[in-house]
Amino acid sequence: MSFAAIDAWWWPYLFILLAGWLATDCWRYLGVYLGDRLSEDADILVFIRAVATALVAAVIANLIIFPAGALAATPLALRIAAAIASFLAYLAAGKRVFVGILAGEAALLGGIFLFG
C-alpha cells in the first residue's frame, strides 16, 4: 500500500493519519508499558533526554539561522538577539516558558518595527 494506491479525495488524509499514528503511538504505548519498570535516573533515560534536548536545540538553531517565510526577511543579528532575550527572560522569570516566549516575540517584533 502506497500513498498513490487509492485515487480518492479522502485517501491522503487517511494515509497521513494512519502513518502518523503508527509511527508515534507504538512508541508511546511502549513508553507507558516500560515506564513503571525504569528509574528516572536510569542511564538510558538520561541518554534519551539528552538526545531529545539536542534535537530541540538543533531545530531552534535551524529556525534561527535558516528561517523560512517572513522571518527570512529579518536580519540574523535580530533573530539571535531575540533568542538571547528570550532565554534570559526565561531564566529571570524562574524558568517559565511562557515568559520566555513572550519576551522573544516582543524582542523580535520590536526589532522589526525599529529596524525593518
Question: Would you summarize the structure shown here?
Answer:
The chain is mostly helical and 116 residues long. Helix content is 72%, strand content 0%.
Number of domains: 3
Radius of gyration: 20 Å
Q: β content, as a range?
A: under 5%
How far apart the termini lie comes to 50 Å
> Which spans of ≥5 residues are poorly predicted at pLDDT below 50?
none
How would you summarize the topology of this molecule?
Blueprint: H1 11-35, H2 43-65, H3 76-92, H4 97-115
Helix pairs in contact: 3-4
Protein name: AzlD domain-containing protein
Transmembrane segments: 12-34, 46-66, 72-90, 97-115
Pfam family, one: AzlD
Protein architecture, described:
- The protein has 116 residues and is mainly alpha-helical.
- The protein has four helices and no strands.
- It has three domains: 37 residues, no CATH class; 29 residues; 49 residues, no CATH class.
- 72% of the residues lie in helices and 0% in strands.
- The model has no long low-confidence stretch (mean pLDDT 90).
Which features would summarize this protein structure in a list?
transmembrane; 4 helices; AzlD domain-containing protein; membrane; 116 residues; flat; mainly alpha; 3 domains
